[in-house]
Amino acid sequence: MAVLVIADHDGTAVRDTTAKTVTAASKLGGEVDVLVVGQGAKAAADSAAKISGVRKVLLAESAELGKTLAEAVEATVLPLAGGYDAILTPANMDGKNFAPRLAAKLDVAPISDIVEVVSPDTFVRPIYAGNALETIQSSDAKKVITVRPTAFDAAASGGSAAVETVAGGEAPGTDFVSEEMIKSDRPELGAAKIVVSGGRALGSAEEFHAVMDPLADKLGAAVGASRAAVDAGYAPNDYQVGQTGKVVAPQLYIAIGISGAIQHLAGMKDSKVIVAINKDADAPIFQVADYGLVADYKTAVPELMKALG
Amino acid sequence: MKVLVPVKRVIDSNVKARVKADQTGVDLANVKMSMNPFCEIAVEEAVRMQEGKGGHAAGTATEIVVVSIGPAQAQETIRTALAIGADRGILIQSDADLEPLAVAKVLKAVVEEEKPDLVLMGKQSIDGDNNAVGQMLAALLDWPQATFAAKLEIGDGKATVTREVDGGVQTVASRLPAVVTVDLRLNTPRYASLPNIMKAKKKEIVTKTVADYGVDAAPRLKVLKVTEPPKRSAGEKVADAAELVAKLKSKGVL
């Protein structure tokens, strides 16, 4: 049995999500290879080689793989698929984009967003916005799986796998046009140890940033937002924590002015410690919070800043 | 151009799903059902393409066909889409809850029959949360795909799509015919007006079965059990920020 992990990386190094997916892959048993797709991604492949337990790293490069176009990933992985019993990738936006395409080409049922490997053919995944967990058994000989990285520990480093080059595919029907990445010195929302999230109570985009940004910088935290705050235009879409946005599980999650709608809770309830600051003592967020402070954010956040020193 | 919009009937997004005591699934008896919110956004965008709104030239869409695979009541979901402005519907009746691969295979057969220039659909349904059918349909048809659309422009035989990706947005141009799946920011769906709801009642819905399409819809996945996630219980209230910081320090998270 051999398993292929398609890496998540930033061009120079693999992200933490890749080492977490390697952990999930190793639970299936057998050898684990990592495929790095990109362009000018040799450094990322070298960093993948250092993940403990990896047999070898495959590096595939093309202009279209540099933009992770699904059709190019398909063309790259299909010729390799015969050598693997399972193909895993983190359930981030890229993985969600190409994994089902790959599964359909292989005529297998994709298994999305797993949070547990019960056995090599049985997995647990959240459904209904995380309000239920289903345990499913796959009868497909080959499996295509996306992994929720927050549910697995990162594999240790210390490996020294060889890096081989394989052919990089193209995307005949889709052309890359442009991209606009949000530049930030803060940690990534999905990987941050501390997340501070703001809700609709903040009232405007100016207020959102005036309150959340200094607090995040003081804590070295990523900034998140509720869907209500995103819908109201207070925060950009990629701040959104919830079932339809990002699922996070940091060490510390601080919810400010967030009432705690079902869909928001689905995105953060696996955090280790949850703090809620809300002036409404009956807000549902308090039902999941380890520590609740019933107070207006306007007074509570400055006091918190002061207490943090 | 002709646009095909697949839609799904799911639990209403404001209802909390409850797991059945026997762990066989989620209890949907007497629960409010609605059109999947992402499907609604897809229908709205198709109608804007027809009306010439949302940055589209009028008549960008010339015919909007809505298709739903589901129980007889999925007809209501199709009627909702027709009330928003779609032209006609196809109900593919199935009491079995088809897996994404089977859904994609049935939709492929529908595409081969209807020959749309664009399939516009939600990125995921809020019940199964798979986020798979659009990508799989594109693969089976060997069509380009542009997923998680926050903006859509049609022109020069291409769909130019601004996609939600981690860390920002990416714009790609996919040659038509293509599959585009939509994300939340694309538009805000309208409420259907009463006259349009009345008009929708007269629009055509053809009823078919999965068997009519000769597709192998056998399940590949067996659901062993459905359970409730571990519950978090409410912790303690703190008096002020200073106490909060002290508690967090003693927990070792600060």
CATH architecture of chain B: 3-Layer(aba) Sandwich
Low-confidence segments of chain B: none
Q: Which ranges of chain A are low-confidence, i.e. pLDDT below 50, for 5 or more consecutive residues?
A: none
Number of strands of chain A: 16
- Give the helix proportion of chain B (percent range): 25-40%
**CATH homologous superfamily label of the largest domain in chain A:** HUPs
Largest interface: A-B, 89 and 78 residues
Fold and architecture overview:
The complex is a heterodimer of chains A (309) and B (254). Chain A is α/β, with parallel strands linked by helices and 309 residues long. Helix content of chain A is 27%, strand content 29%. Chain A contains eight helices and 16 strands. In chain A, strands 5-9-4-1-2-3-10 form a seven-stranded parallel sheet, sandwiched between helices. Chain A starts with a strand and ends with a helix. Chain B has a single domain (2-228), classed as HUPs (Rossmann fold, 3-Layer(aba) Sandwich), CATH 3.40.50. Chain B has helices at 37-51, 74-84, 100-114, 133-141, 194-201, 241-251; strands at 2-7, 9-11, 33-35, 63-70, 88-93, 118-122, 145-155, 158-165, 168-175, 178-182, 205-209, 221-227, 236-237. A nine-stranded mixed sheet of chain B has the order 9-8-7-10-6-1-4-5-11, with helices on both faces. In chain B, α2 packs across α5. The longest helix of chain B is centred in the first third of the chain and has 15 residues, at 37-51. At the A-B interface, α3, α4, β5, β7 and β8 of A face α3, α4, β7, β8 and β9 of B. β16 (291-294) of chain A pairs parallel with β13 (236-237) of chain B.
